[in-house]
Design goal:
single chain; Immunoglobulin-like; Jelly Rolls; eight-stranded parallel sheet; six-stranded antiparallel sheet; 47 strands; 13% helix; globular; binds beta-D-galactopyranose
Length: 758
């Protein structure tokens, strides 16, 4: 069979055709109309208490939205309802009764008929100034409160009136029950069986063959389940059901089954996948949908190809380190002519080291050769004041490991940068974010690494031996945002220490400097950054200076003045569409301030497995949102700093990061940042001038659904005929003088290059 083909390989189970199976109605009682009163009285837990004069309240949102804005302290919610015994009789599994409350900001005590049945959060004593310890609730206050009771629990009154009373304590910000559609229900399938589609990613061959292992986990001690796993694929553009396949799976108590899902589609086909598991006896179902990570980047050729920027800057007399990024089959032999005096190339590793003493512009010619052929590239080395003449590319530990970063994780990330081939496309920085610092300075005031970082010089030697560069993090305040030691009053000493360690990049994060600054005036905002610039100027190393102060005081207007190479323009990014959209599409205002060696930083990439801790998950961005992310960051000439677990790079994420035509837009030597030139009906055009006179254009669809749009050349304030090339697909689309029609996936993009045909 040609496309589409879909197969599920059965491991010991028979293929099973689902005969029609009518699911039983879910057995639950909704709890929507609550009574509410601020204050605190333990009598309010009593079922016989008369609450008829209390306010009526809903619980979809915090109490602030229902007229109790900024209320802090105790408040009570009450609801009465009849619990029919038919609930347990109809239940397929005869398990526990479950009370689902919703989230509670901050702490709750929940009573059924006057008896405490559950509590989340430690202290309910308002006078306790140590106060709110929501971190003692695993998952924080945003944890869904779910309480279980056995059906023969004496606190439950079957077929009679029951009262739930919730005592809530809140301090600061919003308060009360929220995000809630509370129900009382009998345990159902999803309480026992988890359908895990996120532990592994798709492995993808030739853009067409998809394989992934999903897991079905039965955590019940008592029940076994017989059900049907169904996987179906639907084309996003045509809504065609491409395939649906079903198989019968039996789950014994406390067991799990892995299932290989395997199918083919046409290259680049944009599909959604629905997974469901339906228990045969009860008809209960668990269901998940995800988008197929379709690859557009063509396979990287076997022939040696020199990637990366065409221009590179370093300061005279400072240690020089540049690994020529070359893709293609290894081994590769490297050579170069025209390098500045003092620099040497290792012909086996492609790493250029040494010191160039004389300022100047050097036109070098790089050569790379493997068994498939030779590739040459002109490479300009500018020995002078400017470094990071093109935006830095690399990895930073924060979005992935958060404060749990360690020497070992840094080394393994550097190894993976090489092994994955990302270094062959220009990724070179390995940056340690917060969490490396010791609790106290040495008696002489010198900072050291904590127990997770025993030996910085050895670590940087290791990273440098791979041809990669090492970054570090600090704050101008006494403490970093993670509560570690900052550089306040130790700026010169720290710069010297980092230089001795071999650090190549510093992220300098405002954090607790807020307590030192007299106010938020421009001189106060600039002061600590001038100081560290001075300190960095005193060392004999190129250390990229990256400001992080979330855009305060329009930092883009003066980042250059304080001598930074880049500056964060926003707060922290996270792996959701609203965060990506909120940050990425607000960068038009900062566009004029970008240029070679001066970059706006809309924060790091949220691709691959991220998590800000040891608990990682696949990015919550859909594949189309990820195309948007990289396309926009390329157009914005933003630093491309990955923030994912490098050991778990999947094929799709790699394809997003190894498209050299897309990366070339980011690394273009003209250094312009794209500007928004069109914005209607949530279709936006972002246009970036490139050094060769051509233009890179992203057409973004910020709508949820598929949209047709017409790209009018005149909307771009252009005349003439243009050759248009699709950069993700690396394919010429033709010559156009009026425009072309495009179809854009929801939250997706078409990234093209327009070259005028004279
Ligand atoms: C934040 C910063 C993050 C990360 C974190 C570390 O202020 O924006 O990117 O560096 O601090 O504590």
């Amino acid at each position: 069979m040609k496309f589409p083909v879909f197969q599920i390989f059965l491991t010991g189970f028979l293929l099973f055709l689902l005969t029609s199976c009518s699911p039983k109605k879910s057995v639950s009682v909704g709890l929507s109309d609550w009574k509410f009163k601020t204050g605190d009285d333990m009598e309010w837990s009593d079922p016989s208490f008369n609450d008829s004069d209390w306010e009526n309240i809903k619980v979809e949102h915090t109490w602030d939205e229902y007229g109790y804005s900024d209320y802090d302290g105790y408040a009570w919610y009450r609801i009465s309802f009849v619990l029919p015994s038919s609930l347990k009789e109809k239940s397929a599994y005869q398990g526990d009764l479950i009370i689902e409350l919703g989230k509670v900001d901050d702490i709750d005590q929940t009573y059924l008929n006057g008896v405490l049945i559950g509590q989340n959060g430690e202290t309910l004593d308002l006078s306790d100034t140590a106060g709110l310890r929501f971190e003692q609730i695993p998952g924080g206050w945003a944890k869904f409160r779910i309480y279980n009771l056995s059906t023969d629990d004496k606190r439950i009154k079957w077929d009679q009136e029951n009262v739930i009373a919730v005592r809530v304590w809140d301090r600061g910000g919003l308060g009360g029950i929220y995000d809630a559609h509370p129900v009382i229900r009998m345990e159902g399938l999803s309480d026992y069986v988890q359908l895990d589609i996120n532990s592994t990613s798709f492995s993808i061959q030739n853009q067409t063959n998809f394989n992934k292992v999903i897991r079905l986990v039965n955590s019940s001690d008592d029940f076994s389940f017989e059900g049907v796993l169904s996987v179906s694929l639907m084309d996003r553009f045509t809504n065609d059901k491409i395939f649906k396949e079903k198989l019968k799976i039996k789950l014994e108590p406390n067991s799990e089954k892995e299932q290989l899902i395997s199918f083919q589609t046409e290259p680049g086909r944009n599909c959604s996948i629905t997974y469901s598991y339906t228990e045969i006896k009860s008809g209960e179902k668990i269901i998940f949908t995800e988008s197929l990570p379709y690859i557009l980047t063509p396979p990287v050729p076997d022939k040696a190809r020199i990637n990366g920027p065409v221009v590179y800057g370093a300061r005279p007399g400072h240690p020089f380190l540049y690994k020529i990024p070359v893709s293609g089959e290894k081994p590769i032999t490297y050579s170069a002519s025209g390098l500045p005096a003092g620099l040497n190339l290792d012909s086996k590793t492609g790493i250029i080291t040494g010191k160039a003493m004389k300022k100047g512009i050097y036109k070098a010619l790089l050569k790379a050769e493997n068994k498939h052929g030779i590739n040459e590239k002109e490479f300009t080395i500018k020995i002078g004041k400017k470094i990071t003449i093109t935006p830095p590319m690399g990895w930073n530990s924060w979005n992935c490991w958060g404060l749990s970063v360690s020497d070992e994780k840094i080394r393994s990330s550097a190894d993976e940068m090489i092994r994955s081939g990302l270094a062959d496309h220009g990724f070179s920085y390995i940056n340690i974010d917060d969490g490396w610092e010791s609790a106290e300075r040495l008696p002489n005031g010198k900072i050291t690494g904590n127990e997770k970082f025993p030996d910085f010089p050895a670590l940087s030697d290791y990273v440098h031996s791979l041809g990669l560069k090492l970054g570090i993090y600090s704050s101008p305040g006494p403490l970093t945002c993670g509560g570690y030691l900052g550089s306040y009053r130790h700026e010169f000493m720290d710069a010297k220490t980092w230089s001795e360690w071999g650090v190549d990049y510093l992220k300098y994060d405002w954090c607790s400097y807020g307590e030192i600054a007299k106010n938020r005036s421009l001189p106060e905002l600039k002061k600590p950054y001038f100081l560290m610039r001075k300190a960095l100027d005193g060392v004999n190393r190129d250390i990229v200076y990256s400001l992080c102060q979330y855009g305060m005081g329009n930092v883009w207007e003066w980042g250059n003045e304080v001598g930074a190479e880049l500056w964060r323009t926003t707060g922290d990014i996270t792996d959701t569409w609203s965060s990506l959209k909120g940050i990425g599409f607000r960068q038009a205002v900062v566009a004029p301030f970008a240029g070679p060696g001066s970059w706006n930083d809309p924060d790091m990439l949220v691709l691959g497995r991220v998590g800000w801790s040891d608990n990682l998950h696949p990015t919550r961005l859909t594949p189309d949102e990820q195309y948007t992310h990289i396309s926009l960051w390329a157009l914005l000439a933003a630093p491309l700093l990955l923030g994912n677990d490098m050991a778990k790079l999947d094929d799709f994420t790699l394809s997003l990061l190894t498209n050299d035509e897309v990366l070339a837009v980011n690394q273009d030597p003209l250094g312009r940042q794209a500007n928004r030139v069109y914005d209607e009906n949530d279709i936006q055009y972002w246009l970036k001038e490139l050094a060769d006179g051509s233009l890179a254009l992203g057409i973004f669809n910020l709508n949820e659904g598929v949209k047709n749009a017409r790209l009018n050349i005149s909307d771009l304030v252009l005349n003439g005929t243009y050759a248009i090339r699709d950069l993700w697909r690396q394919k010429d689309l033709g010559r156009f003088n009026d425009g072309m029609d495009v179809t854009l996936p929801g939250h997706g993009v078409l990234l093209v290059k327009l070259s005028e045909v004279k």
